[in-house]
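note to self — DONT lose this again. spent like an hour looking for the file last time. sequence + predicted structure for the chain T wanted, 251 res
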Amino acid sequence: MLGMREIANMVAVLLLLTVGVGVASADAPATQPSADTAGQLQVLANEALARNDYAGALPMLEKVSQLLSNQPDQLGPILEEIRVCRRQISKGATATATATPSAISPIVTIKDVTGDPRQPHPAPVAGQTIELPIKQLGNFEYDPEKGGNIPDDVKAMDGCHFRTHGYMIPLDQAESITEFALVPSLFACCFGQPPQIQHTIVVHCPKGKAVSYFGDELIVEGTLHVQEIKDGGFIVSIFQIDASSVKAARS
């Protein structure tokens, strides 16, 4: 069931998509209403993208591209987001048909939890690979200033064989990358909304090996560590992976 916020967003989107062209013919200068409409749609699209709701974001981004068609400096990033949305939607349409069991070990897949109260993670079983999205791994509130409140069921996952997917943000260098942050989405970062610390995984490549920067979605597999890592007195990470595999996600 949709909450009040989702319903309000849907109504706002419908209004913006319906009147977006009409407001440009009002008494005010034509360029300003279009820019305002585009800005509002971008905010709503960003919220959808932060939830990985690519199907919801796509029509809003397409409308923004129409409104900004005469502003090529702003249009480029929007067209790239549209391309990624279409690609992710296409992947989602074929994910079930192409999914195959792990050749390494059995997989326990935990689906996203969208409602309250929080559902604890089941205890890892020796010889199994746990696979779940980053946000589901960190499905709890966390105070990076105080720390110390990682749930016990999450701590119990320390040392398990783990697989997830996300996008790369290099931490050491742009080439021959040996360490990077894995985040659920790059869009929130681009709009100045970095992911929460419990929704970020620091990936360590095997010693002596490095990867090149990759802008599309990755699948990362390896040993998960759950511990508060501090730098200069500040908590900078609670999830880390010693990677055994880093590869492009494929439909």
